[in-house]
Amino acid sequence: MTLKFYTNPMSRGQIARWALHEAGADYDQVLLDYDSTMKAAAYLAVNPMGKVPAIDHDGKIVTEGAAICAYLADAFPDAGLAPTADERADYYRWLFFAAGPLESAITNRSMGFEVEPDKEKTVGYGNYDQVVEALGSKFLTDDYVCGARFTMADVYVGAQLIWGTQFGTLPGRDSFLAYAKRLTDRDAYKSAKAVDDGLIAAIG
Q: Residue 55's pLDDT is what?
């Protein structure tokens, strides 16, 4: 089976590359430039949004970081990254929490948009502080999204926390930093980051 990975090293494609390395997937990468190839007809046929990451796995296209993570866990079952029956509730809950409320709250705050108190009921995430508190309570008691075991959900949730604490879009709580450290110590994280760091240096 062939897997083609569309990315830019300075993008959310870093999440998908980490997921690929955790899954042990062989892949061919296609590097895209924001102002040209990412908006060209050839790539828009893959992702009409003109954004990365995307993967083509034997003709099946998957876009969106969280979807790519979940897909790879299922497509490469020998890696043991998909949830067990007992883990599914936490796995899907927090994977989609990170892709929805967390991503939205961080992005809106970074762009200077704050939800007015009387509008919080119309916004899916309520407000930024509520999102942080919900996530913070999770990692006060659990080492990983599904408790004691690393799963693919940790790639997506973890990437949000790693970047958020590094760049100040999330507070540097002890529980967040400890979780991030557990993830960045993983061999697959290190190998994926080394590839992207090398590409960034070459561009640079």
A: 98
Residue 15 buriedness (CB in 10 A; 0-12 / 13-18 / 19+): buried
pLDDT of residue 73: 98
Note the pLDDT of residue 188.
Answer: 98
**Cβ-proximal residues to 125 (8 Å cutoff; 6+ apart), any chain:** 100, 101, 102, 104, 105, 131
Q: Which residues of the chain have pLDDT under 70?
A: 1
- Predicted TM-score (pTM) of this structure: 0.96
Q: Cα-flanking dihedrals φ and ψ of residue 29, to 5°? A: -95, 145
Query: Is cis: bond before 83, omega within 30 of 0?
Result: no
